[in-house]
Amino acid sequence: MPPRKRTRPTLGFLCCFSSSETPEINLKDSEPLQLLEFSAPMPPEEELHARFSELVDELDLTDKNREAMFALPAEKKWQIYCSKKKGCRGPF
């Protein structure tokens, strides 16, 4: 069987950008983007510290980075915890 001749790959989706016109982007929703809000209220300081400590241990950080994480304000710790733990749940 003779070898197949290689063909030049096609441009695929890039062909739609061949014209000099800038594509127009239309948003279906006219509402502005909103920041994510955490549905669970922040737990008491002791529980937050315990949960955050578990998370930091899982991250296997250096001592310097661990210190920086624990130096963060409580609100930021809670945001980090909720972003890393899907389905963030409240203290109860």
Automatic annotation (TrEMBL):
InterPro entries: ARM-like, ARM-type_fold, Formin_Homology, GTPase-bd. One of its GO terms (molecular function) is actin binding. It comes from the Eukaryota. One of its GO terms (biological process) is positive regulation of canonical Wnt signaling pathway. Residues 41-86 form the Formin GTPase-binding domain. It holds the Pfam family Drf_GBD. Signal peptide: none annotated. This is Formin GTPase-binding domain-containing protein. It comes from Cyprinus carpio carpio.
